[in-house]
Amino acid sequence: MPARRKLTTFNRGRAIAWLHDGVSKCEVARQLGVSHSVIVRLNQRFQTTNNVEERPRSGRPKKTTPWEDRFIQRQALQHRATTCKVIRGQLWEATNINVSERTIGNRLHDARLRSRRPAVRPLLTQGHRRARLAWSRRHLRWTRRDWAQVLFSDESRFNLYHSDGRRKVWRREGERYEDDTVHERVAFGGGSVMVWEGLQPSSTHPPVPCGRESHWSTLQGRNSRPYCLADPAADWPKRRVSG
C-alpha cells in the first residue's frame, strides 16, 4: 500500500478532475502514489467546501497564557541584560509553569525583542553631565579666533597585529581550518603602541609615542607646552580651556 503523503494543490485538482471523469478512488490514489484514505478525504472536503485547499489547523496549543507572555516581556524590558534562563526561573517562581528557554525566546521574538550587542558610550554620571553643560555654556559665544588659540590633543592606541574588535570570516562547510579563515593569535595581544598628538589650526604637533608611565599631564608638560612656546606666531598658549 502506498505511504500516505501530502498532495500539492496541482495534484489535488487533478484528483478531483479524475473523480469527476469517473475514475475510481483507488486508481486515482495509485496514479498519485498516495493512500486511498487521502483521496477519500479530499473528495469529502471538496464536496463540503467546494475547495481543494486544506482548512487552517490550530496547531500545537501554546503553553503560556497571554498574562504569562506579558510577564516574560516585562522581565526582559525591566532587565535588558537578562537571559532566557533567568526569565525561565522567574516564570517558574511566579506561576509554577515550566517551559523551555526556547519558548521564552519565542515569546520575546513575538514581541519583536531580539538579543543584540549593546551600543557603547562613555560612562557619564550626573556630575559629569552638569560639568559638561556648564562648560558648554561658558564657551557658547567663543569665536573662531578664540578657538584658534586652543591646542586640541588626543591619544590613540595602535595594535601591532590586529584590531581589538570582533572579527568574522566568510567560509564554506569544511573550510574552518583553511589558512584564509583562521585567525592567528599572539599571546597577550602581541603588544601595541600608544601615540599622542596635538592639533591646532595653524600647525600640528608631531606624534609622540607614549610609554607606560605617561600621563596626560606629563605629555602636556614635556610636549605640548614647549612646542607652543617655540611657535613665534602662537600667542594662543596664553588661553587655557578647562573642564
Automatic annotation (TrEMBL):
It comes from the Eukaryota. Residues 69-140 form the Transposase Tc1-like domain. This is Transposase Tc1-like domain-containing protein. GO terms for molecular function: DNA binding. One of its GO terms (biological process) is DNA integration. InterPro entries: Homeodomain-like_sf, RNaseH_sf, Transposase_5, Transposase_Tc1-like, WH-like_DNA-bd_sf.
